[in-house]
Amino acid sequence: MTEVPDPTASPPPGKPPLPIDPHLPGICAALGRDGAAVVVAPPGSGKTTRIPPALLAAGLLGEGTCVVLEPRRIAARAAARWVAEENGWGLGREVGYQVRHDRCGTGETRIWFVTEGVLVARLQADPELSGVAAVVLDEFHERSLEADLALAFLREVREALRPDLQVLVCSATLDPEPVARFLGAPVLEVPGRPHPVEVVYLEKPDPDPLPLRAARGVRRAWPLRPGGAGDVLAFLPGAAEIRAAARHLADWAAGGGIEVLPLHGDLPPARQDEALRPGGQPRVILATNVAETSLTLPAVRAVVDTGFARELRHDPATGLDRLETVPVSRANADQRAGRAGRLGPGLALRLWTRHDDRGRPAEPLPAIRRVDLSRAVLEVAAWGAPDPASFGWFEPPDPARLAAALDLLRAIGALGPDGRPTRRGEALRRLPLPPRLGVLVLVAAEGGAAREGALAAALLEERDIVLGARAFGEGREAPTGPSDLEWRIELLEEAHRAGFRPERVRALGLDPGACRAVWRAARQIRRLAGGGAGAGPDRTEALRRALLAAFPDRVARRRAPGSDRFVLAAGGGAVLDARSAVRRADWAVALRLDAGGRGARREATMRWASEIDPAWLEAFPGFETRFETRYEPESGRVVAAEVTAYRGLVVRERTAAPDPAEALDRLARAARDEPERFLDLGPEPRRLVARCRFLARALPGS
User: Is 102 helix (H, G, I), strand (E, B) or coil?
Assistant: First the structure.
């Protein structure tokens, strides 16, 4: 690793000095010389806001633009605004941003801050990146799947189309050597934190709920702020915990004239800006990990870290990715602590013990190891690599997970036989949804059930709205019907009609917070996917067909009438959960399937299901009709049948006339295996046959 030369460069005129400033000439020189570079600099050093203007000032952009990749929409907007203010530029003129559904800039804009999906879409549409002189991948240590894809695409662009395209990868905590080898680029290190940060741990674990612990931590950290001034930034996993912590702090804050502000990705931009702009009174900012990187929070002098974050993880039960609350890595905790050292010495209060700290992972788990790969594989196929195993991944995925993603994309009709995206695959790429949910929403909308499809997708993606057995209490009978989603949709709409009032929602046996989250998600999905056609004549059937289209690998057939056991098209068996509504369907799609170990059979548990008509299966790969001829020892006859099956599950079987040649072959085999059935053998020949069979069992293969 090479330390960037430290010339006696002063900070840019009119800007407060930041640790990155003396190193900007060296970074520009390395990028201009090698065309690619990796910069490692600690949190708060100014990477995000100082490097892009420096590239422009050094003439490295020529007549082109600089595209800066940010991991979140809030970071892209905030960074563009901060760069505009620092340089006296107009937001939307010299510097702008582009995120989903929001673009601020013109053809004259020289520096663009964009989110990862925007860059990947632009690369797919214009692989040469016409008019772009440099791409900066900021905060690459977060290792999202889109950032990994963008890096791999950019390397191919530099090698095949644009050797003049400059690529700069920036990170605070990443081991830079793998990226440097991948790009063939030098590593430039900016050493040292802006200011020292004292890290304080708990003496013993705190068993109280997380929001209460966070509020207690804020009150403890407030008088310990270095210099007795500045803001406190507290990290919590999600918006619900932020709201709860704010309630715990309300009386204390009001008594001290302290403003408590939330900061998370679901807030409108104007509300986010309240936390990002300096305030006129002391403040406590309650944030998710959106405040971990890229954002400038200039007045923070103390950080309170709960040690948890929401992270996408693949859920085998649903076949989808789900946000889970997980402990942050030590690298993430250091990144958070660094937010307190921007102005001067800071304090970081970690709400866990030193012993717990040693058990945390050193680095966060890259998305490519923990999320569904189907969307990434679809993008790679659209890029022109129908065999994803041969694509130049930055970190090659696990082969088994790669194969599973390919199987899914073929099953849902997103990839054709040549490995290229189909028309449906291209439509799915335009939807910012997992491919399964994208198919569900598209097919439901085509059938006139756009609203039901969006609600079903949201119910599958979010946590369950039903409060366990309470949904069946207070005189309510356990539901019986064709789908576990349909009755949840009915209950959710009833909760909506009640205005999601907590007491009314709980009386329905539902979780008020989960209901609101699902309703918000469904609205967003409708907005992303478009309204679709008007309401169809049979929205119920349209929804069930859409669920089959999204989960064709989850088809199940009841083993016997009245049984709670099913056989799965994917192999193995499943037991229907006692709380499932689908008590009578012979054919169903398993929407939530917990792999498990029930009894000696080790069968899975089918939590949610939806009835299907087996006739619908004919439209899917894996549906086949074959003729089977067999000898029946009981009757001594050769029989034939026309068997229709889906992925090995028999849909129907019809008696057919056996082919004479096939019948003769089956009889010959049967006579060979059991000659006593066909020949009038005496006692000695029978004993000889028995001895031969014994030897065959005792000495197989001899």
Answer: strand
* Alpha-carbon distance values, 189 to 37, 177, 197, 389 (Å): 11, 12, 20, 33
Burial of residue 564 (CB within 10 Å: 0-12, 13-18, 19+) is: middle
Is residue 28 exposed (0-12), middle (13-18) or buried (19+ Cβ within 10 Å)?
Answer: buried
Rounded-to-integer distance, Cα 573 and Cα 551, Å: 17
Q: Among 238, 218, 635, 591, which Cα is nearest to 440's?
A: 591
Q: Please give the pLDDT value at position 6.
A: 40
Closest CA to 543 of 583, 506, 490: 490
501 contacts 426 by C-beta, under 8 angstroms: no
Structure token digits, residue 395: 């970190």
Cβ pair 95, 84 in contact under 8 A: yes
Give the chain's radius of gyration (CA, Å).
Answer: 31
Using CA atoms, how far residue 184 sits from 27, 155, 179, in Å, is: 16, 10, 8
Is the distance from CB of 454 to CB of 441 less than 8 angstroms? yes
Largest CA distance in the chain: 112
pLDDT at 275: 87
Q: How far is CA 351 from CA 97, 209, 211, 261, 693, in A?
A: 36, 12, 11, 20, 72
pTM of the model: 0.84
Listed in order, strand segments (DSSP E) in 500-622 are 555-558, 565-568, 573-576, 587-598, 603-611
Rounded to whole angstroms, the Cα distance separating 253 from 259 reads 7
Per-residue confidence (pLDDT) for residue 477, from 0 to 100:
57
Whole-angstrom Cα distance, residue 82 to residue 222?
Answer: 27
C-alpha to C-alpha distance for 128 and 106, rounded to whole angstroms: 20
Q: Tell me the two tokens of residue 385.
A: 């690599």
Sign of CA dihedral 641, 644, 646, 651: negative
Report residue 412 as tokens: 């849902």
For the chain, list the domains and their CATH numbers: 2-189 (3.40.50.300), 197-368 (3.40.50.300), 416-544 (no CATH), 623-683 (no CATH)
Rounded to the nearest 5°, which phi and psi values hold at 85? -65, -40
Determine the residue type at 408.
Answer: L
- Span between the terminal Cα atoms of the chain, in Å: 65
Residues of the chain with pLDDT under 70: 1-14, 192-193, 468-478, 531-537, 596-601, 663, 670-673, 675-681, 701-702
Q: How far apart are CA 16 and CA 402, in angstroms?
A: 48
Answer for the pair 565, 577: CB distance below 8 angstroms, yes or no. Answer: no
What local confidence, expressed as pLDDT, does residue 654 receive? 81
Contacts of 29 (CB under 8 A, 6+ apart): none
Tell me how many degrees the CA angle 653-657-663 measures, rounded to the nearest 5.
105
Q: Residue 2 has what pLDDT?
A: 45
Q: What is the pLDDT of residue 344?
A: 86
For residues 583 and 480, the answer to whether their CB atoms sit within 8 Å is yes
3-state secondary structure 150-162: HHHHHHHHHHHCC
One-letter identity of residue 415 = L
Distance CA 329, CA 350 (A): 12
Specify the 3-state DSSP secondary structure of 119: helix
24 closest CA partner among 169, 171, 190, 172: 190
CA neighbor of 569 nearest in space, from 644, 626, 648 = 648
